[in-house]
Fold these 4 entries.
Entry 1:
Amino acid sequence: MTTSPANGAGPASAGGTATTRPGAAGGTSASRAVERRTELAAFLRTRRERIRPEDVGLPPGSRRRTSGLRREEVAQLAAVGVTWYTWLEQGRPINVSSQVLDAIARTLRLDPVERTHLFRLADMPGSDTLAACPEGATLPAEVQDVLDALNAVPASVVNERFDLLAWNDMYALIYPRVTSAPVGERNTLLATLTGPECCNPVGSAEVVCDTMIGQLRAAYGRHVGDPAWTHFIRDLEAVSPAFAKAWAAHDVAQPKTWVKAFRHPGVGMVRVTTTSFSVSSVPGSRMVVYTPSDAESRIALDRLAAGEGTEAHFPCWPVHDPQRTMQAAATV
């Protein structure tokens, strides 16, 4: 199916799909399109039928002939036309947009795997990245369990924009500024770019930022035109001239194993090797584990794990304490 404006209404353009003789060029593609639309129709129907009316605030009714929601109810809840949704569920070759698919996914309460499947069946260009890690996606509890099991070393989960999604206690000890920030500001790239030099826990912040910005640029290639990404990039350009300069260079990079240094006021410099693992339950996210790269760093992390130095602060803490900063902002 092809992309259209956000309302998603209407059949495909006049003339439809050209008829192809069996065995002629394009015949295989046409048959696959029919199979995909048939699969999409069945998938939507089964997802609709599993939702009870009372689950979405509708009266159950006593004269329902089918289980789950009616088509017109899905259309109403998703704010799309009844006829358009009926045609979609019937497997007709109609236009569809990512915004409409997203509304349908929310209405049908699809989980991340189901949402990705919906986008693929709808044959959206870049479907894997359009469906990946939607706003508000939550990590399964098992992912936090893994992070907690690794508590001898710092570990976290980030998405492609470096939003911090989860972390363990050791990571919070190493990087309290980002873990204690409001939810909408828990972004490791933003914190590294804007943290005061006197208490920025990231050593060689400029080098680290250049690497992170290269990774962000590579990921952005999969999200060009996404309003959330565009807004995020514009915000970073506004708050950080260093980001704007590096972004304009168009350098790209991929996540890799590398040595990174953290500064801690209680135990000193901690050098770690970063290793990333994909978190398949939320597409686009990855777990980053920081293992000590030398004996001194291992000792430093062991001291933190034992509770040594955890109350220490940089000399500028009275001025740059994140909690004080948030309280001051709230009183303005």
Entry 2:
Amino acid sequence: MDISLKVRSFGLSNIGVMYGLNADVRVRLLGDVKGGFDLSTFVDRTLLAICAKSPMEYAVAMSGKPRLGYLCVTKEGNSRSVGVIIKKRLVGCMERLH
């Protein structure tokens, strides 16, 4: 799930304008709660996963996708989650290799 910083700032600043600065307002990110301030239309629910046995080049290529913050690493055969590759850490690691 990803919400760009500009969208978050816009949405959260509008809560203060719409409900008053001291209001206690629920913020909905997934659209499942009734009432409150709905940011669900701004949420990117795209999940990108990579098999644990895939070559590292695949992860590097996928990290070039816009708005990708992380890759879910899954076990081959049953798609069980075995970890997460964070884009910032992957890019940092690649920069140290060069």
Entry 3:
Amino acid sequence: MDSFLGFEPDTALLVTGAASGIGEAIAMTAARLGLRVAAWDLKEEGARRTVKAIASEGGTATAFGVDAADASSVADAWAQTTHTFGAVSCLAAVAGPPSFGDRPFMEGLTAAIECMRLPTEAWLDQPDPGSRSAVYLSSVQGPRYGAGVSWYTVAKSAIDGYARSIAGMRTGGIRANAILPDWVLTPRTQQFVEKIGGIEWDANPMGRIAVAQDVANVAVFLLSPAAQYLNGISVEVDGGSHLRSLGWMRMAQISGSAA
């Protein structure tokens, strides 16, 4: 177990949306550090692939097919998870509906929020692990940017607020933080990233968009005892994209001052 992060041996982590992308990266990273991982996903086959990958590296994980926006499904999955792992002390709430596609406003908004709220509230009915830490996947879309799919923008703002509410009230003793990535290369976004020519992105000081591992590293740190006094913060994992606007980039290109 990593001495800096300070996880106790056999710490159990539940990751929703663990089949691919950011959720998969968090599950894999945590397992490499010795955490036992409950991999939840709407696509159980995908969760099983994550578990298989973890097992191939000597880690411990179990897959569960779960609709994180359905109370009954969540309750059943928590019962199975607790039976398998005992008390769970860490939660990475990643699952949520994709921002693209034709989805009614309230349907998208409700599903996104319930994917955070339902696993959290059901967690409080499980055995007390002594301490609880959670990370909630929001986005810079909403808390920072307003353009885009309207329900997604509102939902991500709500998730950011939900994390602060949990942190402020210390509901069930949960230490909670939100992660706000900018554009991240995942299986969901890959087709769009390819259309713009790949992950290189001049508008970002780092010269690229994020990959899932960038977000996973922050998530695992925030969940760890090393971050025990970080509570209620919103971490923008954006490579510094907020430091440059597209207007600034265009002006720099025209003037020849771009780096």
Entry 4:
Amino acid sequence: MKDKRVSSKDVAREAGVSQATVSYVLNQSPNVKIRPETRQAVLDAARRLNYHVDYIARNMRLGKSASVAIVSNSNMPSYIFLRILEGIKSSLKDRNYSLIVSFANYTDIQDAEFIKSYYSNLVDGIVFVFCDLTEQGTEFLDERQIPYVTINANYQPHGRHQIKTDLRPAMGDAIAQLKAAGHTNIGYIGQFAGDEKSMRYSAYRAAMRDHKMRVQSRYVYKASGDESLIESAIAEQLDPVLADSKLPHALLCDNILAGFYVQRYLHKNHISMPDAIALVVIGSNDFCKRVHPSLSAVEAPLHAIGFRGSEFLFDIMESEGETPADSIVLQWQFTRRESS
């Protein structure tokens, strides 16, 4: 025979408080002050009775799904996505919300699965993670007042409700550290080398200019971003430089993969870091801390991006007609390790 289900009334009786107090404590009501000892008594009683809040029933009463759709591209690097997702989950957990992951594999946004989920009351809002919305897409969402946030590395001029990042100050910190260490020739290598439209390469050029240092074309090396080609592309660029003993004093790699293969190239050729050449990578990955020497890095605040993106969505959902700021800007950080 199935055991009788424990109710909030049972918890209230066990804790010696009202049923309303139990509701306030277990639902973490932010606007109700509860004495710490009373809160603990309720939590202890709920634990003893193995009581859990029925969120489905609660959300039905409130007219909410208590879920958020996370929309991303299927080819997004797993580490970046998971770190952002951890930040989103940290925010959702505080509000007893869950998430539903969807991929941006639609032709017309009105036919997308996450839009159907919104209109079916399966989700209360949408977070787009590194999947660019078209102008038509943002117009569709705005016209229908669907709560959404976009998380992107670059600003979209037609978008609203954006979490974006600024790489430039952290890049300036990296160049400043390299310059202070006596490195005068600071090069750049990777798939975006020489691309003025690239956020990473343009931040490198701006930082060099700000610190009164000259970008020298002979120290700018273009290398493929394709994992199957990048190792040979790096060797093709650096072999002649090494043969002429004209390596730069320091090298910025425009992604983690490039950093890995450059470091491997230097090891194979018995070039020490940072004595013979200092190395800094642009990107975020635990790999940077685990290799030897550990890699200095200009890193994106991935967890904070996810957390602030989720909090921004709740601000929008709770705004009651008032439009919050169009965007929030988060800063990258330079972390110095053994390679520089």
